[in-house]
Amino acid sequence: MKNFIKLFLGISTSFFITGDLFSQSLTLVRDAKLSLNQEDVVLSAPSVKLLDRSQIIEAEKVKLRKDSYIQLLSPDALLKTRVLKNGEKAFIQVGIGSKADIVIVNRSTSGAFSIGMETLSEAESLPFFWKVSSLNDGGADGIVDLQFSWNKNSEPLDFHLKSLMSREGVDWLMEYDQEIQDTTVYLKSFSFKESTPIAFTISTNRLDSDEDGVPDIIEIREGTDPKDPNDYLDTDGDKVPDYIENIQNTNPLDPISYLDSNQDGVSDYVRDRSPIMFINLSNVQIPWGFSGIDTVLPDSLIAVLGSGKIINMNIIWDKSNLDIFKRGVYDVSGNFELSPGLFDAYQIPSNIQVEVLPKPAPEDIHLSNNVFDAEKSGNEVVIGSFTVLDPFDDQHNTQLSGLAFDNVYFEIRDGVLFWSPEDRADGDTRFRILVSVQDRDGNILEKEFTIIRNRMSVSDIEIVNTFTPNGDGMNDTWGVRELRFYTGVTLQVFERSGERVFYTQNPDVRWDGTFNNIELPVGTYYWTVKVGETGEIRRGILNLLRK
Q: What's the rounded Cα separation, in Å, for the pair 69 and 129?
């Protein structure tokens, strides 16, 4: 048998009803609960009203006239769904003064959900909001798809940019994973945190999170990222969003149709987001060799955009052509980093002039040793090394100053002075050289040095008395090379008969034991050495042997 109920007032207990329930109207007050959780139980009524803390359990089983809805006239009244399996949905018609449709699709494990409503007085929002919570056991999170639909007549005036908002504390925050139609909002995979009711409303929303000029809600509708200022609908590719072109009455399908107020060939949209000047670019002076250049160059630029907005822009300086070890003025170019949503339409140069100040010249040059012994072999001789006194630099180019003085007899390599003449400079024991030192800044210091060459005295020279010109490469010739550093030298060799068989004035020339290209016999010969420079004469016996 079917039950017929016309009106309930002051119900304070739960009713568990079987079969179909019909009523002309129904009002639940106080703590009344109407439970429709029996199988095949449906409540049909032209109107249903809930007051106080009353509830309808499995409210999706309520059937109303086409233009009717469940009226929640108390902020504490609730509608509860049955336990929905994954993928199941509940459809509930509810409202305060006007009808709204709520669809809940469960996307997690089985669970039930509750819906409440309150009025909202904000001018640019619907006059009501929904309170939705998960009824899962243990406060487990529930994940659902939510759909809210409302009557056009319930919208406030100027309600174009509308979106679904959820309340967090006293703030209303836009839900980004939503789809928006004229009078329907669909939120995908919303996650309830614990069992605290979440409040939702539909509100005018001009929020532009990425500041690209396109409200977030428009970007959601157009399928672009409302948090990426470079992602917006730009059908004609002129860098101006279609939304902006529609506002400015230009053609979003024509790439040369855009607002250009000052006729500079750049759209106002791009100009407003491009640097037109930098206000903290100033030239820099640094001491010679200053290695802390990065500490004096700004790491960001203060840029003025075409809109007049002032922003900081990170910059990287190209210091490849800057030589801190050479005085001069250098152009250091900067490459600034464009933040997302900015353009570089005017390519304003971001260069700084860096002046490297002159370095003081080296103060002095020292030579570790200026005396050396003559080497009879004619090989080069290491004399000493140079040290440059320079408080500011430790790298210098030290060299002989051209052919000044006696420089031709010497050589400098890696700061070391060598005696390295092709000419033996016989007769000379004191030499003057001119040395120049150049630092990395181009400063040059010249200094004169006196170099002393020691020669073995004529009386101390050991003159051998035997040689063996037999062609074995050992002791095949006779001579006195130690005399090569003296002038006026004469060397002679005589036979026992007194005939001269060898004569030279060049100490580098040696006797090979022949006379007129004829080998002389083994025997005793006599030599004389005369040094004109000192007036000394030496004589001795020379044995010629052939073994």
A: 15
- Residue tagged 């090989």 (tokens): 379
> Which tens digits make up the pLDDT trace of 216-268?
999 998 999 999 999 999 999 999 999 999 999 999 999 999 999 999 999 99
Residue 226 CA to its chain's centroid (Å): 27
**Cα 294 to Cα 310: distance, rounded to the nearest angstrom:** 24
Q: Please state, in angstroms and rounded to a whole number, the distance separating the CA atoms of residues 487 and 485.
A: 7
How far apart, in whole angstroms, are the C-alpha atoms of residue 294 and residue 330? 15
Quote the tokens at residue 135. Answer: 């009824």
**Cβ proximity of 81 and 125 under 8 Å:** no
Contacts of 225 (CB under 8 A, 6+ apart): 210, 219, 231
CB 368 within 8 A of CB 387: yes
Distance CA 184, CA 182 (A): 6
Using the structure block, give the residue that is written with the tokens 């630029």: 301
**Nearest in space to 174 (alpha carbons), one of 212, 141, 135, 221:** 221
Q: Phi and psi at residue 496, in whole multiples of 5°? A: -65, -25
Tokens 């003559």, residue located: 374
Residues 6+ apart with CB under 8 A from 267: 238, 239, 240, 258, 259, 260
- Summarised one tens digit per residue, pLDDT across range 382-412 is 999 999 999 999 999 999 999 999 999 999 9
Distances (CA, A) of 36 to 30, 78, 337, 459: 18, 14, 63, 139
DSSP character string of 476-511: --B--GGGGGSSSEEEEEE-TTS-EEEEES-TT--B
In a 3-state reduction of DSSP, which class is residue 312? strand
3-class SS at 219?
helix
The distance of Cα 219 from the centroid of its chain, to the nearest Å, equals 31
Between CA 115 and CA 121, with CA 116 as vertex, the angle to 5 degrees is 135
Question: Structure pTM?
Answer: 0.65
**20-56 tens-digit pLDDT:** 667 778 899 999 999 887 677 788 888 899 999 999 9
Q: What angle do CA 493, 496, 498 make, to 5 degrees?
A: 65
Model confidence at 312, in pLDDT bands (50, 70, 90)? Answer: very high
Q: Are 277 and 308 in contact (CB under 8 A)?
A: no
With a cut of 60, say whether residue 8 has pLDDT above it: no
For the chain, how many residues are written? 547
Give the burial string for 307-338 (b: 16+ CB within 10 Å, else e).
eeeeeebebebeeeebebbbbeebebebebee
d(CA 41, CA 27): 18
Q: How far apart are CA 412 and CA 164, in angstroms?
A: 85
DSSP string over 88-150: -EEEEEEESSSEEEEEEEE-SSSB-EEEEEEE---TTB-SEEEEEEE--GGG---EEEEEEEE
Burial letters for 1-35: b for 16+ Cβ neighbours within 10 Å, e otherwise? Answer: eeeebeebeebeeebebeeebebeebbbbeebbbe
